[in-house]
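Key result, reporting period 2: structure in, sequence out.
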């Protein structure tokens, strides 16, 4: 962990702003990164004002001004931009953000924020995936379809997987209409013979694959009683959601290493504390563990593997009541394919980039994780 100690340690008062999940889950880590306890905590929600959190009183933003403009504020929510602007407008000069990683379970750093905002980024975006071949599993609908179309718009050729060839016909036509090549492939990923046959076919009869989005997954209803999730339910989730993408990695990555280039993006989930969905959650944890632990083996090969949590979105899996639309996963879900810096083992939380352009998303990710080309 690193922190901008100079200004922070010199500040007469230090406060945390934004008392959400990350603040609660990572409070002790924040103290370690900061090297001291905060003097107060602050939030925009009136119902928190006057209450104590970890023994620190929560004040209102209006009360912040009484501490003087040399007070240092560390923003402790994922989307720091709006609060940063709010604090600047209040005349505060020492505004920092805590940067979280691993699906926001750990505090990676505390960074000084400048006056910049992602919307200011105007660089021309040269697509790094133009002419590459991208395999998207589970491309027929939902998040996979959004990823495939977005990659096609960036000039990548698409191999669109689903359970049946006809499920991706409309997508293949849509990608072809965008001027790229698009080919369908099918396999039931709950059947290892079908999976291996598909991987054989991809190797022998398709162009070499440069980029893979392991996106296909299942989330089955396991009954109302969290104590009675069956072994079959666990096995079904593990097979499709963990073993199939892991096997796909094992088959495709060695070819990528031979060619000196590859990007693997495993679509996972930060789902936690949902006992009724334990079979799904554990299968995603297995995929995430695999990805993070494999990453060091790829150093220097030109191949990188990363993780995406798309957020809770309105797809067939997420259902109609999910808070986010499908469009919100782009551009964040693409970062592992677009960034030409060390994204090996990184988590990208797609919702943090919702509404940003590709340039803005790339700039935000680079700042947040301290990435350099
Ligand atoms: N939706 C959310 O809120 C949410 C949240 C966190 C993470 N995620 C993750 O995001 C990814 C995409 O989710 P989604 O919401 O877009 O799902 P979805 O709408 O249910 O789409 C699932 C896709 O996977 C394919 N698929 C399903 N079962 C399969 C199997 N047994 N074998 C092969 N392919 C299969 C489907 O193909 P067919 O058309 O042939 O069935 C379809 O293309 C998943 O990894 C999911 O875990 C989603």
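The corresponding designed sequence is given below.
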């Amino acid at each position: 962990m690193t922190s901008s100690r100079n200004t922070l340690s010199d500040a007469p008062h230090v406060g945390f702003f934004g008392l959400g999940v990350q603040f609660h889950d990572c409070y002790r880590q924040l103290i370690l990164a900061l090297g001291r306890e905060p003097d107060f905590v602050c939030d925009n929600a009136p119902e928190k004002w006057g209450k104590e959190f970890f023994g620190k009183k929560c004040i209102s933003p209006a009360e912040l001004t009484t501490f003087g403009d040399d007070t240092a504020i560390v923003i402790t929510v994922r989307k720091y931009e709006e609060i940063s602007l709010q604090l600047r407008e209040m005349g505060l000069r020492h505004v920092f953000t805590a940067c979280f990683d691993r699906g926001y379970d750990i505090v990676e750093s505390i960074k000084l924020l400048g006056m910049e905002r992602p919307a200011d980024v105007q660089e021309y975006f040269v697509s790094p995936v133009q002419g590459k071949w991208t395999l998207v599993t589970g491309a027929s609908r939902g998040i996979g379809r959004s990823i495939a179309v977005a990659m096609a718009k960036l000039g990548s050729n698409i191999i669109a997987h689903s359970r049946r060839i006809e499920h991706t016909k409309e997508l293949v036509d849509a990608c072809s209409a965008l001027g790229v090549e698009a080919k369908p492939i099918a396999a039931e990923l709950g059947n290892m013979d079908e999976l291996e046959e598909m991987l054989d076919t991809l190797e022998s009869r398709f162009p070499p694959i440069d980029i893979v989005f392991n996106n296909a997954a299942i989330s089955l209803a396991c009954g109302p009683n969290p104590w009675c999730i069956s072994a079959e339910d666990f096995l079904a989730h593990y097979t499709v959601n963990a073993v199939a993408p892991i096997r796909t990695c094992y088959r495709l990555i060695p070819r990528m290493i031979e060619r000196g280039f590859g990007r693997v993006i495993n679509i996972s989930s930060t789902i936690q504390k949902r006992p009724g969905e334990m079979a799904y959650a554990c299968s995603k944890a297995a995929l995430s563990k695999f990805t993070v632990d494999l990453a060091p083996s790829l150093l220097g090969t030109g191949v990188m593997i990363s993780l995406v949590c798309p957020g809770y979105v309105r797809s067939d899996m997420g259902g109609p009541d999910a808070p986010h639309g499908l469009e919100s996963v782009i551009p964040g879900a693409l970062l592992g394919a677009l960034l030409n810096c060390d994204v090996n083992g990184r988590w990208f939380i797609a919702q943090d980039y919702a509404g940003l352009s590709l340039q803005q998303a790339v700039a935000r990710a680079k700042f947040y994780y301290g990435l350099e080309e």
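The chain has twelve helices and 15 strands. The chain has a mean pLDDT of 93. This case is discussed further under Risks and Mitigation.
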